[in-house]
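User: Second chain of the day. Same drill as before.
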Amino acid sequence: MGYNVDNTTIYTLQFADDQMVMAQSKEYLEYMCRKLQEQYPKWGLNMNIAKTKYMSLGTDTNCLEVYNGDVITGCTE
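Assistant: Same format as last time:
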């Protein structure tokens, strides 16, 4: 999981109140998003699925299926 850069694995980048999750496959990304959705309430946070998008640098543009049947759609812009 994550993305390797010079022997360092980067899993997330955080910007103010936004977070970007990086993975090398759709399956890993789905898993990481499910785990975040499970953990966020423990920290007083939540994931706004309506504002959440994903971007693929490959050919897989199907939606991501995450926790409680939520679906994350791909970026169109």
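The longest strand covers residues 12-15.

User: Great, on to the next one.
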